[in-house]
UniProtKB/TrEMBL annotation:
This is Endoglucanase. Its EC number is 3.2.1.4. It comes from the Eukaryota. InterPro entries: 6-hairpin_glycosidase_sf, 6hp_glycosidase-like_sf, Glyco_hydro_9, Glyco_hydro_9_Asp/Glu_AS, Glyco_hydro_9_His_AS. Keywords: Carbohydrate metabolism, Cellulose degradation, Glycosidase, Hydrolase, Polysaccharide degradation, Signal. It comes from Vigna radiata var. radiata (Mung bean). Residues 1-32 form the signal peptide.
Length: 503
């Protein structure tokens, strides 16, 4: 060791100290959540998905202010597309975010299902509500994937309950002539990851999911192109594929390999990885950009098998982690004074929850294999990643300057004016008469709290100054989304099983 150079242990201690500064110096934490409170948050984060259900609701539906909706979806196109999830506060079923939501719900169960205890069945039910729909969308017509139900431009001109929908329920698809490799490969990832979830509890269903995943991935790979180019204003600017489709192809192949163990998918990753973004760093994991998630998923191959060809994925995973660490080489993340990771002004908490899942998953992989992260001369341990993830989870649950929980129904102080049609309008049980498209806007602009509590919903969250406006029309901050909650399920499951003394 060169004279004057600190030891790796010293750097690790310095980093831990920096993390403690990041986690506590901006505001003094006053809330220490118990395992029971994390368990409550876990239950509610899964319950939220029942409020997003489309289709015929089951007899055990717990959010009883919701009722059946979209029962004729697809019928005018002679296809059954009943079911699935509304993505956020509107009444459209967007395929790309729905599939991503499903993949992350499945990943949450794969990594942290053993900590979910009595919530594991509810988690599987949340996944199955989506996979039942995705199976229909992916297997009904050869070389076709149905990717959306509802005209978003028309839907967004109305404020009405899903049970009252009278806007066009147009069906949109990608095909050999109009490809959509991004949405198709994400659908393959969702089906493959979910097949792992059901491997023990329902092997026949698991096999069905995996076979569908392989089929739709082959379609995605054979007919390459972005669904944004094929569907234009129907998906843009709502869920435009800004990152292109290469990241989804690598992500989808990785999940099929993980689910099947089939060597041809490993060979696909080896042969196509450099073309599909294996050499690129990605620093935001979202419904659009899968690069950080893929790198961490594949880094497990290197950590477990010390496979040199997968060292690249470990290196890029480390770069991603280094980007999140304040005060060390490679750092580029922005944090609010209250300690919240801040990536964007609209729905920032989607990045916080997805990052938290990646931090905990990578910490698990590292700890199981004696690995660490190298950021220049600094060393980051799995414990450091857990510490950072905990600050983000706790911030969302109320340990923040405003002492506000950003999960509806958790704690004493949480958003009451959520940007969500079904939650903000009188339920069909309270008012059976039809509420028309334009009539509903009076409820959007009303100052009163939402009459129906969308329990467990995590909203878009505060701004870069930790400020939050609980105003229904402020969709950037007050709208929930399935892909905000999905990774949080895994993160909060992890903490629900850890005693407070662990930290």
């Amino acid at each position: 060791m060169q004279k004057g150079m600190a030891s790796p242990t010293t750097f690790s201690l310095m980093l831990h100290f920096l993390l403690l500064i990041l986690c506590s110096s901006f505001h003094q934490p006053s809330l220490a959540f118990t395992s029971q409170e994390y368990q409550e948050a876990l239950e509610k984060s899964i319950l939220f998905f029942e409020g997003q259900r489309s289709g015929k609701l089951p007899s055990n539906q717990r959010l009883t202010w919701r009722a059946d909706s979209g029962l004729s979806d697809g019928s005018s196109y002679h296809v059954n597309l009943v079911g699935g999830y509304y993505d956020a506060g509107d009444n459209v079923k967007f395929g790309l975010p729905m599939a991503f939501t499903t993949t992350l719900l499945a990943w949450s169960v794969i990594e942290f299902g053993s900590s979910m205890m009595d919530q594991i069945e509810n988690a599987r039910a949340a996944i199955r509500w989506s996979t039942d729909y995705l199976l229909k969308a992916a297997t009904t017509t050869p070389d076709t994937l149905y990717v959306q139900v509802g005209d978003p431009n028309m839907d967004h001109k109305c404020w009405e309950r899903p049970e009252d929908m009278d806007t066009p329920r147009n069906v949109y698809k990608v095909s050999a002539q109009n490809p959509g490799s991004d949405v198709a490969a994400e659908t393959a990832a969702a089906l493959a990851a979910s097949s792992i979830v059901f491997g023990d509890s329902d092997p026949a269903y698991s096999s069905k999911l995996l076979q569908a995943a392989i089929k739709v991935f082959n379609f995605a790979d054979r007919y390459r192109g972005s669904y944004s180019d094929s569907l234009g204003s129907v998906v843009c600017p709502f869920y435009c594929s800004y990152s292109g489709y290469h990241d989804e192809l690598l992500w989808g192949a990785s999940w099929i390999y993980k689910a099947s163990g089939t060597s041809s998918y490993m060979q696909y990753i080896r042969s196509n990885g450099h073309i599909l973004g294996a050499d690129d760093d990605g620093f935001s994991f979202s419904w659009d950009d899968k690069r950080p998630g893929t790198k961490i998923l594949l880094s497990k191959e290197f950590l477990e098998k010390n496979s040199e060809e997968f060292q690249l994925y470990k290196a890029h995973s480390d770069n991603y982690i280094c980007s999140l660490m304040s005060g060390i080489p490679g750092s580029q993340a922005q944090y609010t004074r209250g300690g919240l990771l801040y990536k964007g002004s609209e729905s920032n908490l989607q990045y916080v929850t997805s990052t938290s899942l990646l931090l905990l998953t990578y910490a698990k992989y590292l700890s199981a294999n004696g690995g660490v992260v190298r950021c220049g001369t600094s060393t980051v341990t799995g414990e450091n990643l857990v510490t950072l993830a905990k600050t983000q989870v706790d911030y969302i649950l109320g340990d923040n300057p405003r002492k506000m929980s950003y999960m509806v129904g958790f704690g004493e102080n949480y958003p009451k004016h959520v940007h969500h049609r079904g939650s903000s309008l009188p339920s069909v049980r309270a008012r059976t008469q039809h509420i028309s498209c334009n009539e509903g806007f009076q409820y959007l602009y009303a100052g009163s709290p939402n009459p129906n509590e969308l329990v467990g919903a995590i909203v878009g969250g505060p701004d870069s100054n930790d400020n939050f406006s609980d105003y229904r029309n402020n969709y950037q901050q007050s709208e929930p989304a399935t892909y905000i909650n999905a990774p949080f399920v895994g993160a909060v499951a992890y903490f629900s099983a850890k005693p407070p003394t662990y930290y």
